[in-house]
Amino acid sequence: MADVVVVGGGIIGLTCAVRLLEAGHRVRVVSAHPPELTVSAVAAAVWYPTHIDADDRVLVWGQQALLELARQASEGVPGVTMRSSRMLLRGDTATPWWAQGVPEFRLEPPPDERFTGEWRFTVPAVQTRSYLYWLIEQVEALGGTIERRRLDSLAEAGTDAGVVVNATGLAARELVPDPAVHPIRGRILVLTNPGITVSHRDEDDPEGGVYVHPRSRDVVAGGTFEPGQDDLSPDAGVTDSILRRCVAMVPELAKARVLREVAGLRPGRHGGPRLEEDPEPLPGGARLVHCYGHGGAGITLSWGCADEVARLVTA
Ligand SMILES: Cc1cc2nc3c(=O)[nH]c(=O)nc-3n(C[C@H](O)[C@H](O)[C@H](O)COP(=O)(O)OP(=O)(O)OC[C@H]3O[C@@H](n4cnc5c(N)ncnc54)[C@H](O)[C@@H]3O)c2cc1C
């Protein structure tokens, strides 16, 4: 079994670390940020292959992650629940490519004349902050270690490891380097929850996508999806627009208060996530396995990608 350094302590790095430890490897996670300062902590985070093209590998990763998160929800893992969801449709109502294996997926009639129908389904929702800490506990319980350190290069991780897993998200743009990686800004609001239990989406709202995801104590209201934008300073106009559109979709939210405005940079990648062994080993001979560029679907694909990384490393 190999000595593996996983660079990255977001959802991707930590799920990979768990699977690698379960496969019997010795694992050290190196992360520049604490869990709450990763992009993963910003995520809404509901299972849904947002803005990802149909692709056989992505379908399998998503299905595997859904199964694992559903299992964890049934076992009471902190921050993981199954959430009844509706997606409002303004055009094509055909069953989407990702629906295979999604519990209770069905087409319902439209709620009013603006829509052509709505998909109903039940999917995992994850409160990522508490979930990241739960993942760290799993890593440590399995004998792994976590180190807070910024590496200047992936080669630095390879000096005392047989394998390096690159789970650095957006930072892969410079570390690999990979010019296909780019930021996709997302702005969301966290609101008080006036009693909402169902997740709502309208991705084709002419003014921009809208979603409302209830959590145990609050509601995530979103949100923007802005490729190429990396300015995280607050924008009152966007806050007002998100709130107005979310209230129009879910009128009960008129009673909600804004608790905070949050923004994050999704690790987008032209061509989709990169999950493969680099044909070039690192200087010093360590193997390099990449797992980055999950865009707006890192939680949605997490455990499926982790399974594949563990298979690649073990092969
Ligand atoms: C507003 C918003 C809403 C979202 N909603 C959803 C959703 O509903 N469902 C969903 O599936 N996804 C959602 N996402 C996307 C999801 O958050 C990302 O796909 C996911 O978090 C990416 O995880 P990651 O582990 O690759 O990256 P990150 O969480 O960014 O982690 C990267 C890690 O690499 C480390 N690192 C980077 N550089 C170095 C270095 N030089 N040395 C050491 N460590 C380094 C960092 O410290 C960090 O630990 C959302 C994102 C946003 C912004």
UniProtKB/TrEMBL annotation:
Reactions the enzyme catalyzes: a D-alpha-amino acid + O2 + H2O = a 2-oxocarboxylate + H2O2 + NH4(+)
Family: Belongs to the DAMOX/DASOX family.
Matches recorded under InterPro entries: DAO, FAD-dep_OxRdtase
Required co-factors: FAD
Keyword terms, alphabetized: FAD, Flavoprotein, Oxidoreductase
The protein, known as: D-amino-acid oxidase
EC number: 1.4.3.3
Gene3D superfamilies (alphabetical): D-Amino Acid Oxidase, subunit A, domain 2 (3.30.9.10), NAD(P)-binding Rossmann-like Domain (3.40.50.720)
Membrane spanning stretches: none
PANTHER family: D-AMINO ACID OXIDASE, D-ASPARTATE OXIDASE
Organism: Kineosporia corallincola
FAD dependent oxidoreductase domain sequence ranges: 3-312
Pfam families recorded: DAO
